[in-house]
Amino acid sequence: MSSFNSLNKVMILGRLGRDPEKKYTASGVAVCNFSVATSESVKKGNSFEEKTEWHKIIVFGNQAETVSKYVKKGSLVFIEGKIQSRSYQDKEGHEKYVTEIIANSVRFLDLKEGGSSERVYHPKEGNAEQPGESSESAPAMIEGDEDDLPF
User: Fold this and answer.
1) What is the pTM of this model?
2) Topology, domain 10-39+50-138
3) What is d(CA 72, CA 18) in angstroms, rounded to the nearest whole number?
4) Of 11, 74, 92, 105, which sits most exposed with the smallest number of CB within 10 A?
């Protein structure tokens, strides 16, 4: 018997390119779609050029409801999830392929008036809470920490 380990995990820190679009499946489950931009500086000759990559994000259930309520175009988010590829047929019957990130954790990192720096969504609990409340699933980020991230 052949045995191997594998891992499908992605972490994205970026800004929404458009407002989330929330829909419902035939069985009533909320599905929220949005795009997130990540950027990096790439050396070109003697100067640097910014390169932006766009990522399609999908969230389901209570998390979709929460995301559609708290984030909008331009919001800074930290997403953990998995990469999924699928195919579908367009209106003309042509087969199309798409790669998406299925989010299992979404952190809202924008500064709010009054000093609050983030909201954390806990999928298992189905709620969004302020830092300092019970956020054991991931360490809270402090304003300015994004400059210290290793990616």
Assistant:
1) 0.69
2) OB fold (Dihydrolipoamide Acetyltransferase, E2P) (2.40.50)
3) 7
4) 92
